[in-house]
Each structure stands twice: as structure tokens, then as C-alpha cells.
Write a structure and sequence with these properties.
Helix content is about 50%, strand content about 20%. By secondary structure, the chain is of the alpha+beta class. The protein has one domain. The chain has a two-stranded antiparallel sheet. Strand 1 and strand 2 form a beta hairpin. The chain contains 2 helices and 2 strands, in the order ββαα.
């Protein structure tokens, strides 16, 4: 591959692995950034899991 290397998204599916290069890969990077921003930190994740266990 010529440098600079393009950004690539790897998508794991039941049918195998798919690779998507830029510019289509940009939407996967944006989705990952949103998920990372919205994710709970370690302590909040533990507290959330404990609350869910109590509901069962």
C-alpha cells in the first residue's frame, strides 16, 4: 500500500471480516468517537452493573 496509509475500518461479522477504506471509513471513526465519549467510566460501569443485577 502506498504511504500515507489510508484509514481503514475493520468490521467483524458472522460471514467474516470486512475492511472499509477512507472516505467510507470516516463514518465508523465518527461512531467510535461518539461511543467512546458516551461510555461510562470504570466506576460508573460497575455501579450500573450492580444496579442491573438488583433488578433481576
Amino acid at each position: 500500500m502506498p504511504e500515507p496509509f489510508p484509514d481503514v475500518a475493520q468490521i467483524n461479522t458472522e460471514a467474516g471480516v470486512l475492511y472499509v477504506e477512507m472516505p467510507e471509513a470516516a463514518r465508523f471513526a465518527e461512531a467510535y468517537t461518539r461511543l467512546e465519549k458516551d461510555a461510562l467510566d470504570v466506576d460508573d460501569s460497575r455501579a450500573f452493573i450492580k444496579r442491573m443485577e438488583q433488578l433481576e
